[in-house]
Amino acid sequence: MCLAPALLAVIALQVYPLANASILSFREWSLTNSTEPGPFVGWDNYAKVLADPIFWGAARTSLIITVCGVALQLLLGTGLAALLRKGRLLHRTARAILLLPMVIAPVAAANIWRLMFNSRSGSVNATLASVGITGPEWLADPFWSIVAIVIVDTWQWTPFVMLVVSSAMLSIPHELSEAASVDGAGRWRTFRSVELPMLTGAFALVVTFRSLDSLLQLDTVYTLTQGGPGYSSYTLTYYLYALGLRNFEISSSAAGSWLFMIIVAIIIVMMFRLDRASREVSS
Predict the structure, then answer these.
(1) Which of 79, 84, 113, 277 has the most crowded Cβ, counting Cβ within 10 A?
(2) CATH number of domain containing 177
(3) The whole model's pTM is what?
């Protein structure tokens, strides 16, 4: 009986919206034509989305942002965790300062960076100009707009990686590092041969959480580029937003949402299999 309210909440907040979206994906409904769902059209909405080149461009952009962003965050976060792992006051203060971007709302962070990326008055190009480098049109160029999104995502979420990896490093027994030092191993070799293999669990956790979060992000893209210029920085989430809430193609948006869910589910399964394989190799 105690689980009944929780079960009802799960059904109301998760199962019902998914079921409703599934039904809508097989019906014809555009708010520009009708305020009520139309007849069933089978798989037509799925075929329409899959035939849309903007969908595949958005999928490619989402993949690029996720892979590049997570790789940079993993590299920088691990490096910072290794540099600041000691309990000295300076290291603790530096860790606290570096965690600040993570507590800023993504919309606020994107707004800050949007001003900084302004090609005429932004501080990024002003800094580059001070060393003789001509800054690009960050938010008006198809390539640099994606780079800008990766930079903002990396700046905000590298502290999360640092926090997780730091916690994992603290759990490594000091005896292992001391034994490696006695055997003549330097700091880099000790880290690479002793500590790094023991951080695979933390890396798997970070990659899983950050990949999913990066794939699902909408606020940063919406605030920073709004998918532009053109469709160059459309991600899958922004594509679904534009399809449903700008073009009012409710049925096509529902079909795209289910396709997106399938893509995310496949990625999750692949990540768990890679994690299991890495654990078997390390053991």
Answers:
(1) 113
(2) 1.10.3720.10
(3) 0.89
